[in-house]
Amino acid sequence: MAEHIELDIDGRRVAVPTGVTVAAAIAHAMVDTLGSGVITRRSVSGALRGPLCGMGVCQECRVTINGRAHRLACQTPIAAGMRIETATDCGAPT
User: Fold this and answer.
1) In whole angstroms, what is the distance from residue 11 CA to residue 78 CA?
2) What is the pTM of this model?
3) Which of 35, 16, 33, 44 is nearest to 88 (CA)?
4) Are the C-beta atoms of 2 and 64 separated by less than 8 Å?
5) Per-residue pLDDT tens for 28-69?
6) Cα(88)–Cα(3) distance, integer angstroms
7) What is the pLDDT of residues 11-39, one digit of tens each?
């Protein structure tokens, strides 16, 4: 079994450890670009949001995965070749 899987997060190819969730993969990728924090979406008022509960209840971790919007990043295991879109392409710091 491979130790890392490559996937696309906001148009950037990243390698993340196997067996993690999409939320963990986003955190892994954002540490390289933002230094810390995880941004997944924007609220109705435009505020940046990120995973909060880690068990799918708060739904703050919603992202677009392979073109399907509102997928829960904290409940979705990664898969090779996934395309994940977060709110960082909406004017958030990159």
Assistant:
1) 16
2) 0.84
3) 33
4) no
5) 888 766 666 788 888 899 888 889 999 999 999 999 999 999
6) 27
7) 999 999 999 999 999 998 887 666 667 88
